Amino acid sequence: MLYYLFQFLDERYNFPGAGVFQYISFRALGAVITSLLIAAVFGRRIIDILRGLQIGESIRDLGLEGQMQKRGTPTMGGFIILASLLIPALLFAKLSNVYVVLALVSTVWTGMIGFLDDYIKVFKKNKEGLQGKFKVVGQVGLGLIVGLTLSFNQYVKIRKYAPRLLSTSNVPDIYTDIKSTLTTVPFVKNNEFDYSSLLFGFLPDSYTWIVYVLICIFIITAVSNGANITDGIDGLAAGTSVIIGLTIGVLAYLSGNKVFSQYLNIMYIPNAGELVIFCAAFVGACVGFLWYNSYPAQVFMGDTGSLMLGGVIAVLFLAIRKELMIPIICGIFLVELVSVIMQVSYFKYTKRKYGEGRRVFLMSPLHHHFQKKGYHEAKLVTRFWIVGIMLAVLALVTLKLR
């Protein structure tokens, strides 16, 4: 909103300093500062409201050290993240940008799914919360919206440049903006993959959108659930999301910048740079939430926050066509999710075969396994963050290491 206001003041009245709002870097800085201020100023008030409503976490005794001391800690703190993310994004981003609109829609959509889950747990006293099938329906719905938008919206294109005859030529670039189902493959020299190749020639390329929508549904569901599972100890999901959000912001800036995208020989996506503002607000919101969620936590984000974080991260990756980097950058989410799948699958298999269920880990998700081995919660979270930083650096290295 502020972008349009200062654009009007600049064009109509030549207002001093109004032109600075045209710069992505300035608006990103404004977004991150605003999100931090909102979390700092209103976070405590939101926690007090949640405590006054007796919205406390119901803790199951899993035999983990210090676990039962958390009983009664306010949950649904994801509202702190939502407010700290949405308000700066609405203030500083271009609201006509299709990628920003998708990010905002995904934030509200997945936040509502998480809120329904928390509401049923807290107010309906149902520890199971929203049934899994309804969560999946919501995630599939978002996948359809994102997949169809990225497939058919007229403003979602990539730019292809014609090769220059002479490197020193002053002739302007010749380019074409095209609809495409190309994505980026890490560690590969010519690192572009077209989803139309998955049709294997059995169907015309016009049906590629079906494959792409299914991929969007799978990615959003997987990453959203991965973030939800990771939210098991103080600061783990929020801190990991900060690292991921920073990495996506860098990738969005490079992908949306003509000079850097050509230098790095990566896909140039017109208007994708606007997502840097959203990523800045996202990072600021998560850091602000960490002020209250770091060990020992004063509030839990609940599914209102965790499902939202994963859903938004997935949509951002899809928007900048870097979704194949998710296993690297979101490695923490992936390992946590896989550990649960392995544990449940192996337990059911051994119970059916031997009459007694056996386990791969002492407890799943993986962070509980390490807790059972005696690692302190704070140290465990810090080490997970360090691994997350290493994965983020590895992902950025793939831009040159092919």
UniProtKB/TrEMBL annotation:
Cofactors required: Mg(2+)
GO biological process, one term: cell division
Ubl conjugation keyword on record: no
UniProt-annotated binding residues for Mg(2+): N228, D303
Reaction it catalyzes: UDP-N-acetyl-alpha-D-muramoyl-L-alanyl-gamma-D-glutamyl-meso-2,6-diaminopimeloyl-D-alanyl-D-alanine + di-trans,octa-cis-undecaprenyl phosphate = di-trans,octa-cis-undecaprenyl diphospho-N-acetyl-alpha-D-muramoyl-L-alanyl-D-glutamyl-meso-2,6-diaminopimeloyl-D-alanyl-D-alanine + UMP
Protein EC: 2.7.8.13
GO MF annotation terms: metal ion binding; phospho-N-acetylmuramoyl-pentapeptide-transferase activity; UDP-N-acetylmuramoyl-L-alanyl-D-glutamyl-meso-2,6-diaminopimelyl-D-alanyl-D-alanine:undecaprenyl-phosphate transferase activity
Membrane topology designation: Multi-pass membrane protein
InterPro entries tied to this protein: Glycosyl_transferase_4, PNAcMuramoyl-5peptid_Trfase, PNAcMuramoyl-5peptid_Trfase_CS
GO cellular component terms listed in the entry, alphabetical order: plasma membrane
Positions of transmembrane segments: 20-42, 76-93, 99-116, 136-156, 206-224, 236-255, 275-292, 299-320, 326-349, 380-399
Subcellular location(s) per record: Cell membrane; Membrane
Record keywords, A-Z: Cell cycle, Cell division, Cell membrane, Cell shape, Cell wall biogenesis/degradation, Magnesium, Membrane, Metal-binding, Peptidoglycan synthesis, Transferase, Transmembrane, Transmembrane helix
Keyword Cytoplasm: no
Protein's pathway: Cell wall biogenesis; peptidoglycan biosynthesis
HAMAP family with a match to the protein in the record: MraY
Family: Belongs to the glycosyltransferase 4 family. MraY subfamily.
Alphabetical list of PANTHER family matching this protein: PHOSPHO-N-ACETYLMURAMOYL-PENTAPEPTIDE-TRANSFERASE (PTHR22926), PHOSPHO-N-ACETYLMURAMOYL-PENTAPEPTIDE-TRANSFERASE HOMOLOG (PTHR22926:SF5)
Summary of the function given for this chain in its UniProt record: Catalyzes the initial step of the lipid cycle reactions in the biosynthesis of the cell wall peptidoglycan: transfers peptidoglycan precursor phospho-MurNAc-pentapeptide from UDP-MurNAc-pentapeptide onto the lipid carrier undecaprenyl phosphate, yielding undecaprenyl-pyrophosphoryl-MurNAc-pentapeptide, known as lipid I.
Protein name: Phospho-N-acetylmuramoyl-pentapeptide-transferase
Native source organism of the sequence: Spirosoma telluris
Gene: mraY
